[in-house]
């Protein structure tokens, strides 16, 4: 008696997921698919909003200075103005509807109004407004982050692409040069070059740092190109007569864009941390300008008595670095064609029910219930007229006797 097994639920689930993924992107262009996947990433979307708010606030509050020309902002104080110190430089901002005081009987609470005051982030020992300083430091740190990220990404991508695609002597020369740059600690290179060029301003310092931070990107892009150049679509493009430049930029590079974008965001987050460290050590942005790391360095002696001088620069450094990392994660999911959203259980259940529902000849829907994965008889699941007829050319299978082989059947 022949026995069969029901297809496993796992296989049905995988097919359902593939069908749902195909329906989700059907009829959409590549740009629309990328936008849809990115805006579906909640962490990246929230981080993009927070980062945009920080950028707008930093450049509009205290204005900016370009080539000696200063553009004012809506904040009444500048980063280099020194108004009189008020209340010992304590922050005037209070965001709670009550105040807390320590008394002999314990803690006491009193109602209070939410206020921002004249100096919400406080003042330093000479009277400079900390909010204005933090906004100017955020401007400089963001400028360094963007320039370093773009320059290091371009250099690393070009070096890695040429090395991984052509291999041979080009690969040997470029990778040995990359290894030489990698052997020198980045903090040492940044300190030496920052001390020499930091006085020229944040853009020049960013260009110098970008020329030494491309090595990790180059090695990652090289590995991606070594893998992708052996794929079938590259062989098909080469047979079709495509040039090397077209294969690199139109066929291989779009498939490596996920790795490039993710590591570009990591480079940008590392750049702002490197600039903070260099400025804290005195090798980054030099006076009369400032940066987030320089603000912390200038007020390190007041850590025990006026800790608010460290809170706000640290908060902005962490917020910018986290936003960049979350945005990079969202871009990776959006650009990488191998990334796919896992359908919800409700969508899977609905799709599975639809696939199990069949139409009878009379038009009445018949739902085939899920059966346990057990051995069942063919006669139990289909009437005799619906079973396929045996092929007369097939040899006898032997095995267990069928219902026609019973004693007294005439055989």
How many β-strand stretches?
Answer: 6
Order of helices and strands: HHHEEEEHHHHHHHHHHHEE
CATH architecture of the largest domain: Orthogonal Bundle
Quick one: CATH superfamily of the largest domain?
Answer: MetI-like
Mean pLDDT: 77
Question: Which spans of ≥5 residues are poorly predicted at pLDDT below 50?
Answer: 1-14, 358-364, 366-386, 406-411
Number of domains: 2
CATH topology of the largest domain: MetI-like fold
Notable characteristics:
411 residues, mainly alpha, MetI-like fold, 2 domains, two-stranded antiparallel sheet, 14 helices, disordered N terminus
Short structural description:
The protein has 411 residues and is mainly α. The protein is built from 14 helices and 6 strands.
Walkthrough of the structure:
This protein folds into two domains: 27-74 and 126-335, MetI-like (MetI-like fold, Orthogonal Bundle); 90-122, no CATH class. 55% of the residues lie in helices and 6% in strands. The protein is built from 14 helices and six strands. The chain has helices spanning 9-24, 30-40, 42-61, 130-166, 168-183, 186-197, 202-210, 215-228, 232-239, 244-252, 257-281, 292-298, 308-335, 345-356, and strands at residues 64-66, 69-71, 98-103, 106-111, 357-359, 365-367. The strands form three sheets. A two-stranded antiparallel ribbon has the order 1-2. The protein has a two-stranded antiparallel sheet with strand order 3-4. Strands 5-6 form a two-stranded antiparallel sheet. Helix 4 packs parallel to helix 8 (215-228) and helix 6 runs antiparallel to helix 7 (202-210). The radius of gyration is 33 Å and the shape is globular. It starts with 8 loop residues before the first helix and ends in a 44-residue tail after the last strand. Mean pLDDT is 77; it is low at 1-14, 358-364, 366-386 and 406-411.
């Amino acid at each position: 008696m022949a026995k069969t097994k029901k297809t496993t639920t796992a296989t049905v689930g995988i097919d359902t997921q593939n069908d749902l993924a195909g329906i989700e992107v059907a009829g959409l262009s590549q740009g629309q698919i990328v936008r849809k996947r990115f805006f579906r990433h909640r962490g990246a979307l929230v981080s993009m909003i927070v980062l945009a708010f920080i950028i707008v606030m930093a450049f509009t509050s205290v204005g900016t200075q370009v080539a000696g020309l200063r553009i004012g902002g809506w904040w009444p104080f500048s980063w280099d103005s020194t108004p009189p110190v008020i209340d010992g430089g304590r922050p005037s901002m209070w965001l709670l509807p009550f105040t807390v005081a320590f008394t002999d009987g314990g803690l006491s609470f009193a109602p209070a109004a939410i206020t921002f005051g004249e100096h919400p982030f406080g003042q330093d020992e000479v009277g400079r407004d900390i909010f204005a300083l933090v906004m100017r430091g955020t401007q400089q740190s963001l400028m360094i982050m963007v320039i370093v990220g773009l320059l290091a990404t371009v250099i690393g991508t070009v070096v890695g692409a040429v090395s991984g695609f052509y291999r041979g002597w080009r690969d040997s020369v470029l990778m040995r040069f990359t290894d030489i740059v990698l052997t020198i600690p980045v903090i040492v290179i940044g300190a030496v070059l920052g001390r020499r060029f930091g006085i020229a301003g944040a853009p020049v310092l960013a260009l110098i740092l970008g020329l030494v931070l491309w090595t990790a990107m180059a090695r990652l892009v090289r590995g991606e190109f070594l893998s992708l150049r052996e794929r079938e679509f590259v062989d098909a493009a080469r047979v079709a007569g495509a040039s090397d430049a077209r294969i690199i930029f139109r066929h291989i590079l779009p498939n490596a864009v996920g790795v490039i974008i993710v590591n570009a965001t990591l480079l940008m987050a590392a750049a702002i941390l490197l600039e903070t460290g260099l400025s804290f050590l005195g090798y980054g942005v030099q006076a009369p300008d400032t940066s987030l790391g320089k603000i912390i360095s200038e007020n390190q002696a007041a850590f025990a008595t006026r800790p608010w001088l460290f809170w706000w620069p640290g908060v902005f450094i962490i917020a910018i670095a986290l936003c960049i990392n979350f945005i990079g994660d969202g871009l990776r999911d959006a650009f990488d064609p191998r990334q796919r959203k896992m359908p919800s259980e409700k969508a899977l259940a609905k799709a599975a029910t639809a696939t199990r529902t069949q139409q009878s000849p009379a038009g009445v829907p018949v739902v085939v219930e899920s059966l346990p994965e057990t051995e069942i008889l063919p006669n139990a699941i289909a009437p005799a007229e619906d079973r396929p007829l045996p092929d007369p050319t097939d040899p006898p299978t032997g095995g267990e006797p069928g219902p026609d082989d019973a004693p007294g059947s005439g055989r």
